[in-house]
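Thread: quick sanity check before group meeting

JM: Hey all, I'm pulling together slides for Thursday and realized we never actually wrote out the predicted structure for the chain we discussed last week. Dropping the sequence here so it's in one place. If anyone has concerns about the input, flag it before I start.
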Amino acid sequence: MSNLGGTSVIFDLDGTLVDSEPNYYEAGRQTLAGQGVADFTWADHERYVGISTRETIALWKERYALEAPLDVLLADKNRRYLELARASTRVYPEMRKFVELLAGEGVPMAVASGSSREAIEVILAGTGLSSYLRTVVSAEEVASGKPAPDVFLEAARRLGVVPGDCVVLEDAPPGAAAAHAAGMGCIAVPYIAGQADDPAFATVGLLLRGGQAEFTARAAYEWLRRFGGEG
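JM (edit): ok, ran it. Output follows.
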């Protein structure tokens, strides 16, 4: 057993492991432009950080009165996103160190994301993280996306561990809420600094208000050691 006891770690992907939000914004902007919505801004995009692509598009259909079927819009956005993701997706350096540190100790790890299964696999393969993160759950594979706990509970099931022994790493309030609903610990690294005071982050075990600039693999590891000692 590792120095972390029986702790398992579940990572959100977008905005937590990798800085994929710029690619998601651009894919969304292009998709909406194709539907005649010409003024989609980064501030508009920020409203949807942390919820699944499918749920985002359902909200867009309502907000922008889009006539195209949801599945057509979803396929369009995913196609555009995958083109951008394949060209360039950056892993946060301290997150890569953290994954490698946990892998070296044999800590069970998974990715649970609101992205499509294909998008998750493209990013993990392209960044070299797939060799460490083999257990993957997409919101497409469960009944409800975040803030429902389904993706995290399914990740724990696939890892063969109990939810109470899991710690989630998240960047967005819906994900923190989902981790809490799943009965899991949570390290929150807010992608949007202005969301640090969101009530969902009040439930987490460790909140790094400075986001990725404040996150270090060593500090996260030390917190996990204490979590494992309590469990």
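AS: nice. The beta strands are 8-11, 109-113, 135-138, 166-170, 185-188, 206-207. Residues 149 and 182 are 5 Å apart (CA to CA).
JM: adding both to the slides.
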